[in-house]
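Q: What would this chain look like folded?
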Amino acid sequence: MSASPDPLTPLAVASQVAVSSADPAHERSGGPATAPMLREADVAVMLEDVAAGYGATTVLSALSLEVARGELLGVVGPSGAGKTTLLRLLTGRADRYHGRIEVLGRAIRSGRAPVGVGYVPQLEGIDWDFPLTVEQVVLLGDATSSRAVPWFSRRERARAREVLDQLGLSGLHRRRIRELSGGQRQRMFLARALHRRCELLLLDEPTSGVDLATRREVLAALGELNARGLTIVLTTHDLNFVASHLPRIVCMNGGITADGDPNEVLTPTSLERTYGAPMRILHDRGRTVVVDADDLDLSPRSVRSIHPVGPHAVEASGADGELWP
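A: My prediction, written as structure tokens:
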């Protein structure tokens, strides 16, 4: 397999604190890897034996995790595994049934947004026709700390434009949000989070639904922010383009199934435990590549093996006389 130069070098080197590596012996035993204990002052996120969910529905259980200040962490897992619930838990928007949660040295309480935390949700649910400018979106990110008047000060506007400039959105502050590209929209929400002076940035699927060029653009921006010392936790479905470039990933499915360096965590054993399906692992110039265990053959000859042939099936025309419903 050939490889082109890696454009995401900042993601590979940005994490400034080495927190965890997979424990091979523990990995073979079928349990998640464990991370060395951190000093309390070095911890950005701490969860200890946490069970959480919504109402009477438990989504996460027996969840213990530490994230160091200045770290860049990716959370992977199938749909419904609890990735978004984890982020919502760290912002006080999910129900904690038991266990201990601290963010930036403070206990999290349900319904109360923690100080110093920026959250970027999935963008699919955003109404892009809403008549807001880029600058207004950024300013509203810190509305709770603003003055109790229906306008923003000159100083607040200047700071918002400064943050936009830092993320490559100079001159776009008056543009309507519907006029932005996919990468510009993500960077606008990054600016909104940074305008709150956050120390911890949480992102839910920041590269979902965007093209390859936009994905590179977003990840490069995250790498630069992390290199400046910002702690980042992001969720992703993309094992190859996103997770494999991160310094540390956590695999989840209702709880943590593996934790550590991608090259040590992305193994057939941990991925089958996480996703419930066998996967193959390839190695290309130091990178781990995840592919399906078996190729899916969609040729006419194989259709009968993936599509049931019932009593109402009729014979299709063709040299092979295959049966189609």
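The mean pLDDT is 80.
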